[in-house]
Design brief:
The protein folds into 2 domains: 6-227, Vaccinia Virus protein VP39 (Rossmann fold, 3-Layer(aba) Sandwich), CATH 3.40.50; 235-276, no CATH class. 31% of the residues lie in helices and 23% in strands. The protein has helices spanning 12-15, 56-66, 82-92, 158-168, 184-192, 204-227, 261-276, and strands at residues 6-8, 24-29, 67-76, 95-103, 121-129, 141-143, 174-177, 196-200, 235-241, 248-254.
Length: 277
């Protein structure tokens, strides 16, 4: 039995061995890019050092093991260290079957930093364990809605993640995010109301932010449900008077709740009196 809709505040390499083989139906994750990244506010990501990629192979070995056969993984990555990522994926057993580019209307790198070009895209590989049957075909190039990176320096848009989940996870499946960050993958699953999530986040600060976002999203959904009026279909019998047997007979017809059977019977009797008069 696998726990779902939970995020563990621990290193995924230490946590994933507790999961059974073939226990999740999709992987959607955004691991550190190995680029020593810092955003405009000076925020960084744990294990994002180019000199430390030792975690890549054991992490993706475990992800491959827990993913069901003939299922998909979508993994964001750092293009400048792509060889290390590809090596880890192939050693684990993943097949590379596609590549996404998400174009931005803004540059990710700060203008004060001297670069050769502006970085206006994110990218991810579509990986497969076995030979999955495609559910929904997505374009290889898609847009990117700016999140403002309010909760995490590399925060991903929830709407985009949900689009990927809808395309590559079977209905009711569990989506594993081994590098959960601020819980955008979890929020996409919660918003869908048909997918479950499971994840790990090593950084205590981002873990607390993730839990806060999940609680807020869940509370909003509960409020929406409680405010919705019940949609009952009220079916009342509509009577017409049968001249042969002198008894009212019914036809089903949707009528407002105040109407009742006596009303229709009395109405039918009055109509008969009019006809006889």
């Amino acid at each position: 039995m696998i726990n779902k809709n939970i995020i563990y505040n621990k290193n995924c390499i230490k946590g994933m061995p507790d999961l059974p083989d073939n226990s999740v139906q999709m992987i959607l994750t955004d691991p550190p890019y190995l680029v020593n990244y810092k955003d405009r506010l000076g925020r960084s990501v744990a294990n994002d050092m180019a000199s430390n990629s030792d975690w890549l192979i054991p992490a993706f070995n475990e992800m491959y093991r827990v993913l069901e056969n003939n299922r998909y993984a979508v993994v964001f990555y750092g293009w400048n260290e792509v060889d290390k990522f590809v090596n880890a994926w192939r050693k684990a057993g993943f097949r590379i079957i596609g590549h996404f580019v998400f174009y931005k209307k803004y540059a990710s790198n700060a203008r004060t930093v001297k670069k050769h070009m502006e970085y206006r895209h994110e990218c991810a590989y579509l990986l497969a364990k076995g030979y999955p049957q495609s559910c929904k075909v997505l374009p290889s190039v898609m847009g990117w809605n700016y999140t403002g990176n309010e909760f995490h320096p590399t925060q991903k848009p929830v709407d985009l993640l949900l689009k990927l989940i809808n395309a590559f996870c079977p209905t009711g499946g569990i989506v594993l995010d081994s590098f959960m960050g601020s819980a955008s993958t979890a929020l996409a699953c919660i918003q869908s109301e048909i997918f479950d999530y499971l994840g790990y986040e090593l950084d205590n600060n981002y873990f607390n932010i993730a839990m806060s976002r999940i609680n807020e999203k869940s509370n909003k959904l509960r409020q929406v449900v409680s405010q919705e009026s019940p949609k009952h279909k009220v079916i009342k019998p509509h009577y017409k008077y049968n001249l042969q047997n002198k008894k009212p007979e019914s036809k089903n017809r949707r009528l407002p709740p105040p109407a009742n059977d006596d009303y229709f019977i009395n109405r039918a009797i009055k109509m008969q009196g009019v006809q006889n008069g």
